[in-house]
Design brief:
globular; mainly alpha; 3% strand; 2 strands; Put_HupE_UreJ; 9 helices; two-stranded antiparallel sheet; 263 residues; transmembrane; 78% helix; transmembrane helix
Length: 263
């Protein structure tokens, strides 16, 4: 992602705040690993777990509620860690935090294949969100802002992260719920979890000091945000069209059945 220079010494407070919102939004879009963790944790959210396996879809309301709680917990976790690490000027090495993030994605991918913590996705998202928040704080630390400016910058930066994150989750929500109810649901979930797990393993190994082509490939794909957003949008539109077609078919069948019964 191209660097965004933010100079709070000149211009208005509002312009500086808007610049920080843009920086936060751009940071989450460029931080593929952060979004990948949230999406992989949401992947099995529309499903019910039983006997150590994912068994069929949950109700739409239950699925939406679980996705909402998981998203909010992740938001709370990384917001708290971002505030604490930025305002207290914690001097934490970057590599353990980055390795922790890669490990969190790998655990999320394994959970998407077989339920490890069914029903506790929100709690896990909150815990792992703490590590993701520490990673976000590195960007603010590099700017070396004074305490007063840091507080305003922290709010704007975090707001930008949340706006983009919530927009992407809202975009993915219909596809997650609808695909879970189709025949391709299990295969899509396993394929997505496998690809994510491989990428996370490559990142984890690289962040422990062993560069590898898997991590390089994952970084290269993550750098292309626009195609990823287009794929997500196309998937969601397809899911919505599928749902509307299904509703129309069922409506026609009910009308036909009513006509036969009355005849």
């Amino acid at each position: 992602m191209p660097a965004l220079d933010v100079n709070l010494a000149h211009g208005s407070t509002w312009s500086g705040f808007v610049a920080m919102v843009k920086l936060g939004g751009g940071h989450i879009l460029a931080g593929t690993d952060h979004l990948l963790f949230l999406l992989i944790l949401l992947l099995p959210a529309p499903l019910l777990a039983a006997g150590g396996r994912w068994r069929g879809p949950a109700g739409t309301r239950a699925a939406a509620g679980r996705i909402g709680r998981t998203t909010l917990a992740f938001t709370a976790g990384h917001s708290v860690a971002l505030a604490l690490s930025a305002l207290t000027h914690l001097d934490i090495p970057a590599w353990p935090v980055e390795a922790f993030i890669a490990a969190s994605i790998l655990i999320g991918a394994l959970h998407a294949v077989r339920p490890i913590f069914p029903g506790r996705e929100a709690a896990v998202a909150g815990i792992f969100g703490l590590g993701h928040g520490m990673a976000f704080s590195f960007t603010l630390a590099e700017m070396q802002l004074s305490t007063g400016r840091l507080a305003l910058s922290l709010f704007g930066f975090n707001l930008g992260i949340e706006l983009v994150q919530l927009a992407l989750v809202a975009l993915a929500l219909p596809a997650l719920v609808v695909v879970a109810r189709t025949r391709i649901g299990p295969g899509s979930r396993i394929a997505g979890a496998t690809v994510t797990g491989v990428a996370a393993t490559g990142w984890l190994v690289a962040r422990l000091g062993y560069p590898n082509p898997v991590a390089a490939a994952a970084d290269a794909v993550g750098a292309r945000t626009t195609p990823l957003l287009l794929v997500l949008t196309a998937t969601t539109l397809t899911a919505l069209i599928w749902t509307l077609a299904g509703l129309r078919t069922r409506s026609v069948r009910r009308c036909a059945s009513s006509g036969v019964a009355s005849g």
